[in-house]
Amino acid sequence: MNWAEAGIVVLRVVLVFALLLGATVINVWAERKVVADMQSRIGPKRAGPWGILQTVADALKLLFKESVTPSNAELATFMLAPFLAAIPAFLIFMVVPFGAPFTIGGNEVILQGADLNIGLLFILAMSSMAVYAVVLAGWSSGSKYPLIGGVRATAQAISYEAAMGLAMVAVVMFTATQGEGGTLSLAEIVARQDGTWAGFIPKWNLFPQVVAFVIFMVAIVAETNRAPFDLVEAEQEIVGGYHTEYSGMRFAMFFLAEYINIFSMSAIAATLFLGGWNGPTWEATLPAFVSALLPTVWFLLKTYSIIFIFFWLRATVPRLRYDQLMSLGWKRLIPAALTWIVVSSVAIGIRQFGLPWG
Q: How much is the average pLDDT of 29-34?
């Protein structure tokens, strides 16, 4: 690897980091404004134009706020847990392609932190690592309320992570029929969704895998502890959940991880089901610079259309009871995902090899 290639790698990592931080600021502000509008309120409006700097003001407040450490806490684990929540949240997005590759000085630049051939497995591994942050934060706080909240949040994450993984399996199976064998690389999955069916229908995995898309959407909403599945943070349920004893920047890292996960999971959904950055670029009519930016614009539009669903659910859907939450995961989503894998396998087999009696 020469200096130019190393510089490009560093540039990609910095770009991903900056994109996630910028998206978090926008997402917190957008959620406040969207939910306020749906509930006939104004939302933030004083800090910056249209209140856009309110999130920055909140971050500065948390940065300078004193962090209180409970006397009964397991200090090392208590301080480590916020990092275990934030770091996997950043790493998940590293394998998501957010634009078309381009060339600089003879070197190809991919708009992706790292193009791993096991990208989907990496995503599942990092989301599993985040579970450790939840249970360790609850246990190390030295209080029964965060402990119970951590146990409940862990059970919820494991339940819906299983359904999310099974939905991915159906997509991988279908993607294998669109190219030369199966792949777990998100860049390759995007590439195989390029083009159209019948000349006008986008070749997205959404259409043949609509059931997997619905299962995946429900699973990621629960996986990110968002309404109506945000029981671990419901005051009437269990105080403040696993991070009850956290304050200052330690709490801010949990908060940051949640909103990064919302963006990352929405981006993964857009990549797996909505064609990722694929879209018309009108190269013949637009300037080359504008045409090169359009794939990233398409990617962000698809991602934010899914993020909007998160906001919409928070404003309109009442919170589930905990028994309803677990029943939905184990008795509905997981059996539905397994059934859809079987149905998809049969349909793919018939498409590839024909009917056994034909």
A: 94
